[in-house]
Amino acid sequence: MSSLTTAALAAGDRSRSLPARFAANHLALLCLAVIILLALTAAVGPGLWPASATDQDYDAINAWPSVAHPLGTDNLGRDTLARLLRGLRVSLLVAVYVETLNIALGASLGLMAGYFGGWLDQLLSRLADMLFAFPGLLLAILVAGVFGPAVTQTFGGIGRLLLVAGALSLVSWPLMARMVRSITLALREREFIEAARAVGANDATILWRHLLPNVMGMVIVSATLDVAGVVVNEAVLSLLGLGVQPPAPSIGGMIVQSIPFLETNWPQAFFPSLALMIMVLSFSFAGDGLRDAFDPKSG
Fold this sequence. Notes:
The chain is mainly alpha-helical. It has a single domain (33-39, 77-298), classed as MetI-like fold, CATH 1.10.3720. The chain contains 12 helices and no strands. It has helices at 2-15, 18-24, 26-48, 80-116, 118-133, 136-155, 157-170, 173-187, 191-198, 203-239, 251-258, 267-294. The two termini are 20 Å apart. Mean pLDDT is 83; it is low at 1-12.
Protein backbone atom coordinates (compact mmCIF):
# COMPACT_ATOMS: atom_id res chain seq x y z
CA MET A 1 0.00 0.00 0.00
CA SER A 2 2.81 2.38 0.83
CA SER A 3 4.48 1.79 -2.57
CA LEU A 4 1.20 2.53 -4.35
CA THR A 5 0.80 5.72 -2.34
CA THR A 6 4.37 6.80 -3.18
CA ALA A 7 3.79 6.12 -6.88
CA ALA A 8 0.54 8.09 -6.82
CA LEU A 9 2.24 11.05 -5.12
CA ALA A 10 5.07 10.96 -7.66
CA ALA A 11 2.60 10.87 -10.56
CA GLY A 12 0.68 13.77 -9.06
CA ASP A 13 3.89 15.75 -8.66
CA ARG A 14 4.84 15.18 -12.31
CA SER A 15 1.39 16.32 -13.42
CA ARG A 16 1.93 19.78 -11.95
CA SER A 17 3.53 22.54 -13.97
CA LEU A 18 7.21 23.34 -13.65
CA PRO A 19 6.64 26.63 -11.74
CA ALA A 20 4.27 24.86 -9.36
CA ARG A 21 6.80 22.11 -8.65
CA PHE A 22 9.54 24.68 -8.05
CA ALA A 23 7.28 26.79 -5.81
CA ALA A 24 6.55 23.70 -3.70
CA ASN A 25 10.20 23.75 -2.63
CA HIS A 26 10.03 26.63 -0.17
CA LEU A 27 13.77 26.76 0.45
CA ALA A 28 14.55 26.98 -3.27
CA LEU A 29 11.87 29.64 -3.70
CA LEU A 30 13.35 31.66 -0.85
CA CYS A 31 16.83 31.34 -2.36
CA LEU A 32 15.52 32.50 -5.74
CA ALA A 33 14.08 35.58 -4.03
CA VAL A 34 17.47 36.18 -2.38
CA ILE A 35 19.22 35.90 -5.76
CA ILE A 36 16.83 38.43 -7.28
CA LEU A 37 17.40 40.72 -4.29
CA LEU A 38 21.17 40.37 -4.67
CA ALA A 39 20.95 41.21 -8.38
CA LEU A 40 18.82 44.27 -7.69
CA THR A 41 21.17 45.33 -4.91
CA ALA A 42 24.18 45.01 -7.21
CA ALA A 43 22.38 46.94 -9.96
CA VAL A 44 20.96 49.87 -7.99
CA GLY A 45 22.76 49.68 -4.64
CA PRO A 46 25.80 51.78 -5.57
CA GLY A 47 23.44 54.52 -6.77
CA LEU A 48 21.35 54.44 -3.59
CA TRP A 49 24.45 54.54 -1.39
CA PRO A 50 26.65 57.06 -3.19
CA ALA A 51 29.62 56.85 -0.83
CA SER A 52 32.89 56.27 -2.65
CA ALA A 53 34.39 52.79 -2.56
CA THR A 54 37.93 54.15 -2.91
CA ASP A 55 37.99 57.50 -1.06
CA GLN A 56 39.64 57.39 2.35
CA ASP A 57 38.21 58.83 5.55
CA TYR A 58 41.25 59.44 7.74
CA ASP A 59 39.03 60.15 10.74
CA ALA A 60 37.48 56.67 10.52
CA ILE A 61 40.35 54.22 10.10
CA ASN A 62 39.20 50.67 11.00
CA ALA A 63 35.94 52.16 12.29
CA TRP A 64 33.13 49.94 13.51
CA PRO A 65 29.59 50.29 12.08
CA SER A 66 28.09 53.72 12.64
CA VAL A 67 25.55 56.09 11.11
CA ALA A 68 28.14 57.52 8.72
CA HIS A 69 29.46 54.06 7.83
CA PRO A 70 26.72 51.43 8.39
CA LEU A 71 29.12 48.50 7.93
CA GLY A 72 32.21 50.27 9.21
CA THR A 73 35.42 51.03 7.31
CA ASP A 74 38.59 49.16 6.44
CA ASN A 75 42.19 49.80 7.48
CA LEU A 76 42.43 52.67 4.99
CA GLY A 77 39.18 54.34 6.04
CA ARG A 78 37.18 53.22 2.99
CA ASP A 79 33.45 52.63 3.43
CA THR A 80 32.78 48.87 3.69
CA LEU A 81 29.17 49.10 2.47
CA ALA A 82 30.16 50.97 -0.69
CA ARG A 83 32.94 48.48 -1.38
CA LEU A 84 30.68 45.52 -0.71
CA LEU A 85 28.00 46.77 -3.13
CA ARG A 86 30.55 47.16 -5.89
CA GLY A 87 32.22 43.85 -5.04
CA LEU A 88 28.83 42.13 -5.27
CA ARG A 89 28.40 43.59 -8.75
CA VAL A 90 31.79 42.18 -9.75
CA SER A 91 30.94 38.66 -8.50
CA LEU A 92 27.58 38.52 -10.28
CA LEU A 93 28.98 40.00 -13.47
CA VAL A 94 31.72 37.38 -13.58
CA ALA A 95 29.19 34.60 -12.86
CA VAL A 96 26.98 35.72 -15.77
CA TYR A 97 30.00 36.08 -18.05
CA VAL A 98 31.43 32.62 -17.29
CA GLU A 99 28.08 30.82 -17.50
CA THR A 100 27.27 32.55 -20.80
CA LEU A 101 30.51 31.22 -22.24
CA ASN A 102 29.88 27.77 -20.78
CA ILE A 103 26.40 27.58 -22.30
CA ALA A 104 27.43 29.06 -25.64
CA LEU A 105 30.37 26.67 -26.06
CA GLY A 106 29.33 23.63 -24.05
CA ALA A 107 25.66 23.39 -25.03
CA SER A 108 26.25 24.10 -28.72
CA LEU A 109 29.18 21.70 -29.15
CA GLY A 110 27.59 19.00 -26.99
CA LEU A 111 24.35 19.22 -28.96
CA MET A 112 26.10 18.87 -32.32
CA ALA A 113 28.47 16.14 -31.13
CA GLY A 114 25.64 14.08 -29.68
CA TYR A 115 23.44 14.46 -32.76
CA PHE A 116 25.96 14.05 -35.58
CA GLY A 117 28.47 11.76 -33.85
CA GLY A 118 31.40 10.59 -35.97
CA TRP A 119 34.56 12.69 -36.20
CA LEU A 120 32.91 15.67 -34.48
CA ASP A 121 32.08 13.58 -31.44
CA GLN A 122 35.59 12.14 -31.36
CA LEU A 123 37.16 15.59 -31.68
CA LEU A 124 35.04 16.99 -28.85
CA SER A 125 35.82 14.03 -26.61
CA ARG A 126 39.59 14.36 -27.15
CA LEU A 127 39.46 18.14 -26.68
CA ALA A 128 37.47 17.71 -23.47
CA ASP A 129 39.97 15.15 -22.16
CA MET A 130 42.83 17.53 -22.90
CA LEU A 131 41.18 20.46 -21.14
CA PHE A 132 40.22 18.33 -18.14
CA ALA A 133 43.90 17.41 -17.76
CA PHE A 134 45.01 21.06 -17.83
CA PRO A 135 44.92 22.84 -14.42
CA GLY A 136 42.43 25.68 -14.72
CA LEU A 137 44.14 27.88 -12.14
CA LEU A 138 47.49 27.49 -13.91
CA LEU A 139 45.87 28.56 -17.17
CA ALA A 140 44.34 31.59 -15.43
CA ILE A 141 47.74 32.57 -14.01
CA LEU A 142 49.36 32.16 -17.43
CA VAL A 143 46.70 34.22 -19.20
CA ALA A 144 46.82 36.93 -16.54
CA GLY A 145 50.60 37.09 -16.70
CA VAL A 146 50.78 37.33 -20.49
CA PHE A 147 47.72 39.42 -21.36
CA GLY A 148 46.79 40.96 -18.01
CA PRO A 149 48.86 44.16 -18.15
CA ALA A 150 47.64 45.10 -21.64
CA VAL A 151 44.01 44.31 -20.82
CA THR A 152 44.20 46.21 -17.54
CA GLN A 153 45.67 49.25 -19.26
CA THR A 154 42.94 49.21 -21.93
CA PHE A 155 39.84 48.15 -19.99
CA GLY A 156 40.79 48.62 -16.34
CA GLY A 157 40.61 46.10 -13.52
CA ILE A 158 37.27 44.59 -14.59
CA GLY A 159 38.80 43.76 -17.97
CA ARG A 160 41.56 41.78 -16.28
CA LEU A 161 39.06 39.88 -14.15
CA LEU A 162 36.91 39.02 -17.16
CA LEU A 163 40.02 37.84 -18.98
CA VAL A 164 40.90 35.44 -16.16
CA ALA A 165 37.29 34.33 -15.78
CA GLY A 166 37.20 33.60 -19.49
CA ALA A 167 40.30 31.44 -19.09
CA LEU A 168 38.58 29.50 -16.32
CA SER A 169 35.48 29.01 -18.47
CA LEU A 170 37.61 27.49 -21.21
CA VAL A 171 38.42 24.56 -18.93
CA SER A 172 34.93 24.27 -17.45
CA TRP A 173 32.74 24.21 -20.58
CA PRO A 174 33.59 20.54 -21.35
CA LEU A 175 31.49 19.53 -18.33
CA MET A 176 28.49 21.23 -19.92
CA ALA A 177 29.32 19.73 -23.32
CA ARG A 178 29.49 16.19 -21.95
CA MET A 179 26.18 16.54 -20.14
CA VAL A 180 24.39 17.90 -23.24
CA ARG A 181 26.01 15.26 -25.43
CA SER A 182 24.77 12.42 -23.20
CA ILE A 183 21.21 13.78 -23.20
CA THR A 184 21.28 14.32 -26.96
CA LEU A 185 22.49 10.76 -27.57
CA ALA A 186 19.44 9.47 -25.70
CA LEU A 187 17.00 11.86 -27.40
CA ARG A 188 18.09 11.48 -31.02
CA GLU A 189 16.65 7.96 -31.20
CA ARG A 190 13.28 8.92 -29.72
CA GLU A 191 10.05 8.70 -31.70
CA PHE A 192 9.49 12.46 -32.00
CA ILE A 193 12.90 12.86 -33.69
CA GLU A 194 12.09 10.03 -36.10
CA ALA A 195 8.74 11.67 -36.81
CA ALA A 196 10.47 14.99 -37.53
CA ARG A 197 12.79 13.27 -40.01
CA ALA A 198 9.83 11.49 -41.62
CA VAL A 199 8.07 14.78 -42.39
CA GLY A 200 11.22 16.18 -44.01
CA ALA A 201 12.75 18.30 -41.22
CA ASN A 202 16.42 19.05 -41.85
CA ASP A 203 19.19 18.70 -39.26
CA ALA A 204 19.15 22.38 -38.26
CA THR A 205 15.41 22.27 -37.58
CA ILE A 206 15.72 19.09 -35.53
CA LEU A 207 18.60 20.54 -33.51
CA TRP A 208 17.11 23.93 -32.68
CA ARG A 209 13.38 23.20 -32.61
CA HIS A 210 13.24 19.68 -31.19
CA LEU A 211 16.45 18.78 -29.35
CA LEU A 212 17.49 22.13 -27.88
CA PRO A 213 14.21 22.79 -26.02
CA ASN A 214 14.46 19.32 -24.46
CA VAL A 215 18.01 19.80 -23.16
CA MET A 216 17.68 23.47 -22.19
CA GLY A 217 16.11 22.65 -18.84
CA MET A 218 19.09 20.64 -17.65
CA VAL A 219 21.46 23.25 -19.11
CA ILE A 220 19.81 25.92 -16.95
CA VAL A 221 19.98 23.66 -13.89
CA SER A 222 23.65 22.87 -14.48
CA ALA A 223 24.52 26.53 -15.03
CA THR A 224 22.70 27.57 -11.86
CA LEU A 225 24.51 24.96 -9.79
CA ASP A 226 27.83 25.99 -11.36
CA VAL A 227 27.36 29.66 -10.46
CA ALA A 228 28.22 28.88 -6.83
CA GLY A 229 31.59 27.51 -7.92
CA VAL A 230 32.19 30.50 -10.19
CA VAL A 231 31.53 32.93 -7.34
CA VAL A 232 34.02 31.07 -5.15
CA ASN A 233 36.58 30.99 -7.98
CA GLU A 234 36.23 34.75 -8.43
CA ALA A 235 36.96 35.20 -4.73
CA VAL A 236 39.97 32.88 -4.97
CA LEU A 237 41.32 34.77 -7.99
CA SER A 238 40.99 38.01 -6.06
CA LEU A 239 42.72 36.42 -3.08
CA LEU A 240 45.64 35.53 -5.38
CA GLY A 241 45.76 39.03 -6.82
CA LEU A 242 44.55 37.94 -10.27
CA GLY A 243 41.18 39.66 -10.14
CA VAL A 244 40.18 43.29 -9.87
CA GLN A 245 43.25 45.28 -8.95
CA PRO A 246 43.31 47.70 -5.98
CA PRO A 247 41.87 50.13 -5.18
CA ALA A 248 38.80 48.72 -7.00
CA PRO A 249 36.89 46.42 -4.62
CA SER A 250 36.03 42.73 -4.89
CA ILE A 251 34.61 40.42 -2.26
CA GLY A 252 37.63 38.12 -2.29
CA GLY A 253 39.98 41.08 -2.10
CA MET A 254 38.05 42.58 0.81
CA ILE A 255 38.33 39.31 2.74
CA VAL A 256 42.08 38.93 2.26
CA GLN A 257 42.73 42.59 3.07
CA SER A 258 40.80 42.30 6.33
CA ILE A 259 42.57 39.19 7.68
CA PRO A 260 45.39 41.10 9.48
CA PHE A 261 42.76 43.15 11.37
CA LEU A 262 40.49 40.37 12.64
CA GLU A 263 41.30 41.04 16.29
CA THR A 264 40.71 44.78 16.14
CA ASN A 265 37.97 45.04 13.50
CA TRP A 266 36.32 41.70 12.76
CA PRO A 267 33.25 43.25 11.00
CA GLN A 268 35.60 44.20 8.16
CA ALA A 269 35.95 40.48 7.34
CA PHE A 270 32.52 39.36 8.55
CA PHE A 271 30.33 41.28 6.10
CA PRO A 272 32.07 40.29 2.83
CA SER A 273 32.34 36.70 4.09
CA LEU A 274 28.63 36.72 4.89
CA ALA A 275 27.80 38.07 1.44
CA LEU A 276 29.92 35.35 -0.19
CA MET A 277 28.25 32.64 1.90
CA ILE A 278 24.75 33.91 1.06
CA MET A 279 25.52 33.95 -2.66
CA VAL A 280 26.98 30.44 -2.69
CA LEU A 281 24.16 28.90 -0.62
CA SER A 282 21.42 30.71 -2.55
CA PHE A 283 22.62 29.54 -5.95
CA SER A 284 23.24 26.01 -4.66
CA PHE A 285 19.77 25.56 -3.13
CA ALA A 286 18.05 27.29 -6.07
CA GLY A 287 19.88 24.96 -8.44
CA ASP A 288 18.79 21.93 -6.40
CA GLY A 289 15.21 23.17 -6.54
CA LEU A 290 15.37 23.59 -10.30
CA ARG A 291 16.79 20.09 -10.71
CA ASP A 292 13.98 18.60 -8.64
CA ALA A 293 11.39 20.64 -10.55
CA PHE A 294 12.65 19.47 -13.95
CA ASP A 295 12.96 15.86 -12.76
CA PRO A 296 10.53 15.10 -9.89
CA LYS A 297 11.73 11.49 -9.79
CA SER A 298 15.18 12.67 -8.66
CA GLY A 299 13.72 13.72 -5.31
